[in-house]
Amino acid sequence: MRLTVIGSVALDSVETPFGKRKEVLGGSATYASLSASFFTPVNLISVVGTDFPEKYIEIFRKREIDTAGLQRKKGKTFRWKARYHYDMSYAETLSTHLNVFEAFRPQVPESVRPKDNLLLANIDPELQSYIFEKIKPKGLVACDTMNLWIEHKRKDLCKLLKKVDLFLLNDAEARQLSNEKDLLDAARYISSKGAKMVVIKKGEHGALFFSRGLRFIVPAYLPARLSDPTGAGDTFAGGVIGCISKEGKVTDKVLRRSLVYGSILASFTVEKFSAEGLLKATQKEINTRYRHFEKLTRF
Ligand code: AMP
Q: Could you tell me the pLDDT band of residue 223, with boundaries at 50, 70 and 90?
């Protein structure tokens, strides 16, 4: 099954205890699309400015990522600047410049069909809703978010929750959204707001899946070394929905496997800066880590 991804395509400036990069390829839709493209063809819907390097667009084109929905508008590309300290579960956002995203009301290219699955990767929930209404999706709809939108666009986010099959967010965001300390209570609250399935990402501690009939946990795949956690959550989301799209059905087994793949893809992202790790990863390496994951978690 094809997958449509909408979210940010960005130029990130990031500093971690292991180094720094200035204005490199980033964005929620970037990581999610690259990750999902290991499993299924992707239609990317996003916007960049006139300053966005063509070489980055080439990266998408070289994969099974259709860029008909990636618009180039007059102005500057979305920019995000952040710093991580030794506890890399938390990114200190130094600045966010929406730039061309501020007035972005995307056109949906013909190649995007309502029957495809849809990932609303992290971006303003108003924009996520706009694209949802434009596509009127019939496939599975997954949605990711972040603390900024929970704080400033809570109403829009809660409206969107009712339409979403699979909602992903990290543990701090789940607590922020639900006002619950316990993660199971938080998942219960989010599911009571409408999301049929909830995935709470816990960074290096893995992820928790919650739905009415199914609950399970998946550990994180431990990377060889940690360089930059940027995009781990988006990569995870892309891997999960990409794997579900490839399978073409939602069963317990598929859900469990898709979260494992999400963890494995994220491990490639955090090993290097920007999307370098993800771009270097091969199908063979992913399969090797999958088998290793089985060994690590069997008891
Ligand atoms: P993650 O590390 O998975 O939480 O996501 C980091 C990515 O999200 C970076 O590549 C940023 O460009 C992007 N990002 C940061 N803030 C926002 C925002 N407000 N809206 C959309 N994307 C964002």
A: confident
- Residue 224 — very low, low, confident or very high, per pLDDT cuts 50/70/90? confident
At residue 25, φ and ψ (nearest 5 deg) are -60, 130
Residue 169 Cβ inside 6 Å of ligand 1? The answer reads no
Burial category of 52 from C-beta neighbours within 10 Å (exposed 0-12, middle 13-18, buried 19 and up): buried
- The atom of ligand 1 lying closest to the CA of 78 is 12
Q: For the whole prediction, is pTM greater than 0.90? A: yes
Helix (H, G, I), strand (E, B) or coil at 130: helix
What's the token pair of residue 67? 């860029």
Residue carrying structure tokens 């988006």: 234
Q: Is there an atom of ligand 1 within 6 Å of 238 CB?
A: no
**Contact criterion met (CB below 8 Å) for 12 and 25:** yes
Quote the distance between the C-alpha of residue 18 and its chain's center: 23
Cα–Cα distance for residue pair 4/141, rounded to 1 Å: 10
Q: Supply the residue whose CA is at minimum distance from atom 5 of ligand 1.
A: 231
